[in-house]
Design goal:
The chain is of the alpha/beta class. Helices cover about 45% and strands about 20% of the residues. Strands 2-1-3-4-5 form a five-stranded mixed β-sheet, sandwiched between helices.
Length: about 170
């Protein structure tokens, strides 16, 4: 079972919903989730806020934070996750922001990635990553990482799934 299928199953069991805010992944997280049959039972939707102003205007990320630190920042990821949760009326929000390449952005090197989860009862978690590889590799690993972070918050272990997928490649 994929990480997307695991988190969706767990959300259905809990009667909870999910929304996604994406930057560098450009819709890949939403595509991964919607590839699972029955995803509509818990997946509300997504916002691809690729342009920095959308992070502020649509998701409500603090403009001063964006101006001072740029879009590739753990607090921006946290704000995106909380913002999409609020805007789309979901129990959980997850977010991705980072630099997939080909060059640095806002002084941050390629492979700098932040993923975040925002959930009920004030749950917030951010993971900062330093990923290697080509643009496609970084984006794919970011999708896996944000789903794994959500799975851990939902009490799911995705280790067996990761091993299974690695064995297939």
């Amino acid at each position: 079972m994929t990480a997307a299928a695991l988190v969706l199953r767990r959300l259905v069991e809990r009667g909870e919903t999910l929304a996604v805010a994406e930057s560098l992944t450009g819709g890949l997280v939403a595509a991964e989730l919607t590839s699972v049959p029955g995803a509509s039972q818990s997946f509300r939707g997504s916002v691809t806020a690729y342009a920095t102003p959308l992070k502020q205007d649509v998701l409500g990320v603090d403009g001063t934070l964006l101006a001072e630190r740029g879009a590739v920042d753990p607090e921006v990821a946290r704000g995106m996750a909380a913002g999409v949760r609020r805007v789309l009326g979901a129990d959980w929000g997850i977010a991705t922001t980072g630099v997939a390449g080909p060059g640095p952005q806002d002084g941050k090197p390629v492979g700098t990635v932040h993923v975040a989860v925002s959930g009920p009862s004030g749950t917030e978690k951010v993971a900062s990553l330093r990923l290697n590889g080509e643009r496609a590799d970084i984006r794919r690993e970011t999708v896996r990482s944000v789903l794994k972070l959500l799975a851990s918050e939902l009490g799911e272990n995705v280790r067996a799934q990761d091993t299974e997928q690695n064995g297939e490649n």
